Amino acid sequence: MVKICCIGAGYVGGPTMAVIALKCPEIEVAVVDISLQRIAQWNSESLPIFEPGLDEVVKACRGRNLFFSSDVEKHVAEADIVFVSVNTPTKTRGLGAGKAADLTYWESAARMIADVSRSDKIVVEKSTVPVKTAEAIEKILTHNNKGINFQILSNPEFLAEGTAIDDLFKPDRVLIGGRETPDGQRAVASLKAVYAHWVPEDRILTTNLWSAELSKLAANAFLAQRISSVNAMSALCEATGADVSEVAFAIGKDSRIGPRFLNSSVGFGGSCFQKDILNLVYICECNGLAEVASYWKQVVHINDYQKNRFVKRVVSSMFNTVSGKKIAVLGFAFKKDTGDTRETPAIDVCNGLLGDKALLSIYDPQVSEEQIRRDLAMNKFDWDHPQHLQPLSPTASSNSVRVVWDAYEATKDAHGICILTEWDEFRKLDFRKIYAAMQKPAFVFDGRNIVNVDELRDIGFIVYSIGKPLDPWVKDLPASS
Ligand code: NAD
Ligand code: UDX
């Protein structure tokens, strides 16, 4: 029986390994983590992450050929293939702070693999890492030269949260990079055989190590660039009376552009896009490619601009101050169908509004009050350093923030509503009922373009929706962008 061990039981390690276990019943898969709490949750009825379809997959194979354990060293020592899926956050201090990837967690995992291994192993980079990381990892693994053959593969993960299980069941492609030596190619073939249990062969791409590592950063940069492009266009739409949804639809009909990933929003969030682009920028700078670095940096810059623009629009529409006003925030997760709040635009928007002394009433169907308060108190880039690996971070105990468990409760007596996550339930809200219970004039600021602007205006709301023709009320105010 082939044994797989995955170090890191997070958003990637957990779902990815659960799907491998489901599709490959003859392979034993152990997912290990230094967080005892996370492992306990994976072994419980209440999994540590909310992801549609994940519960069913885990229940089908947990205890059969899928195991979650904190006995990291034992499972690594026994494995033939070791995936490393630990977090690779942005460095917060030292050389490259604010841009470069912090490989501390990766390096400590690699040192541990080197120390406990007694047999040959394939070590798979599942985490997103800077190009050329495999070279450094190889040096760490072979530093005490025990005669063990380690083959390093790059197998970046392309799943998106909220659709992770579908993405894993039917990936657009699986990418495997390896050394071009006979040993390297044998390792590539072994990993390919795992995926070939359910992924058609023509969707399993093999490349050299550096192409695989760089392709992951490139894919995220291209995806994020698409959102910044449509978001940049949304500002021009608001200035000219064009409608960003119509523009996106029209350009998406060009088969060279395509219709997906063109939804204008309050800004992209999530644990990957910003971190990976900043990492790309740093790699370009280190390679003397200043122009290339500044090109990609602009994608993050426009994203920050979009979040700021939204806050300014809220404040300027409400007579240039939100001080003491109740603002309902609907949605805190970085996208629908996940409870993940890492780099969610809601953090910047809420902090912007709190800076203007607003009173926030926040509702998200999947995010806990504790998480929201911790996020609002956290320093930039601290979010991806797991709490169990660092001193407890402070939480926002401010009286200016209330977290409630119902959209109607959140909006009661509010002066304005900010929609920051596109949860399906927000599309079905009874806005007449909401309007009746709000202060007047009642404002809706839709950061996800999910409301029917005309219907809401008929009810009496003053409505701002990203990239849509402005409400006459908003239009007549001094420019906020
Ligand atoms: P995560 O924070 O959810 O999980 C990482 C886990 O690794 C944590 O539970 C942490 O405790 C554990 N860990 C850290 N160091 C360890 C060690 N030395 N030994 C054992 N466990 C250790 O992160 P994630 O979202 O799963 O992301 C993991 C990697 O995958 C990152 O590089 C990320 O960029 C990449 N990625 C993420 C996504 C996504 O959607 N989240 C998608 C593709 C790629
Ligand atoms: C992303 C990549 O899509 C995935 O391939 C990679 O493996 C990890 O990073 P993820 O961050 O989970 O996945 O979600 P994604 O669907 O890409 O959304 C990222 C952010 O962009 C979210 O905040 C989302 O709301 C926003 N977004 C996405 C838009 O604003 N408009 C869009 O059209 C699409």
Task: Lay out the secondary structure.
Layout: E1 3-7, H1 13-23, E2 28-32, H2 36-42, H3 54-61, E3 66-69, H4 72-78, E4 81-84, H5 104-116, E5 121-125, H6 133-141, E6 150-154, H7 164-169, E7 174-178, H8 182-195, E8 204-208, H9 209-240, H10 244-252, H11 273-286, H12 290-317, E9 326-330, H13 345-355, E10 359-363, H14 369-377, E11 401-403, H15 407-411, E12 416-419, H16 424-427, H17 431-436, E13 443-446, H18 453-459, E14 462-465, H19 472-475
Parallel strand pairs: 1-2, 1-4, 2-3, 4-5, 5-6, 7-8, 9-10, 9-12, 10-11, 12-13, 13-14
The structure holds nicotinamide-adenine-dinucleotide and uridine-5'-diphosphate-xylopyranose.
Care to describe what's here?
With 481 residues, the protein is α/β, with parallel strands linked by helices. The protein has two domains: 3-199, NAD(P)-binding Rossmann-like Domain (Rossmann fold), CATH 3.40.50.720; 221-465, Rossmann fold (3-Layer(aba) Sandwich), CATH 3.40.50. It is 42% helix and 13% strand. The chain has 19 helices and 14 strands. The chain has helices at residues 13-23, 36-42, 54-61, 72-78, 104-116, 133-141, 164-169, 182-195, 209-240, 244-252, 273-286, 290-317, 345-355, 369-377, 407-411, 424-427, 431-436, 453-459, 472-475; strands at residues 3-7, 28-32, 66-69, 81-84, 121-125, 150-154, 174-178, 204-208, 326-330, 359-363, 401-403, 416-419, 443-446, 462-465. The strands form three sheets. It has a six-stranded parallel sheet, with helices on both faces. Strands 11-10-9-12-13-14 form a six-stranded parallel sheet, with helices on both faces. α18 links the parallel β13 (443-446) and β14 (462-465). The chain is elongated. The termini are far apart. Mean pLDDT is 94; it is low at 388-393. The structure holds nicotinamide-adenine-dinucleotide and uridine-5'-diphosphate-xylopyranose. Uridine-5'-diphosphate-xylopyranose is lined by residues 157-161, 220, 223, 227, 261-263, 265, 268-270, 272-273, 334-335.
